């Protein structure tokens, strides 16, 4: 099964919902995981860029 492309803006919106108090920590972690945060971080580490 193919994964959908990672959308950094969407990941940021999940984070911002949590910072605003609109989402529980468990939900934001689920959203970040399902949104591909790990893959994004791995690609940054492999590429050596921030």
Q: Layout of helices and strands, plus pairs?
A:
Elements (H helix, E strand, L loop, with lengths): L7 H12 L5 H11 L1 H11 L3
Summarize the structure.
This protein has 50 residues and is mainly alpha-helical.
Provide structural commentary:
With 50 residues, this protein is an all-alpha fold. It has one domain. Helix content is 68%, strand content 0%. The chain has 3 helices and no strands. The chain has helices spanning 8-19, 25-35, 37-47. The model has no long low-confidence stretch (mean pLDDT 92).
How large is the share of residues in beta strands? under 5%
Instruction: Count structural domains.
Output: 1
| H-E order | HHH
Q: Report the strand count.
A: 0
What gyration radius follows from the Cα positions, in whole Å? 12 Å
Which bin fits the share of residues in helices? 55-70%
Class computed from helices, strands and strand pairing: mainly alpha
| Low-confidence blocks of residues | none
Global morphology: globular
Instruction: Report mean pLDDT, rounded to a whole number.
Output: 92
Chain oligomer state: single chain
Q: Tally the helices: what do you get?
A: 3
Q: Ends: how far apart?
A: 29 Å
Major beta sheet summary:
none
């Amino acid at each position: 099964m193919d994964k959908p492309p990672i959308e950094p803006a969407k990941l940021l919106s999940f984070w911002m919902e949590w910072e605003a108090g609109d989402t529980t920590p468990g939900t934001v972690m689920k959203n970040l995981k399902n949104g591909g945060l790990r893959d994004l971080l791995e690609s940054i580490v492999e590429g050596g860029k921030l």
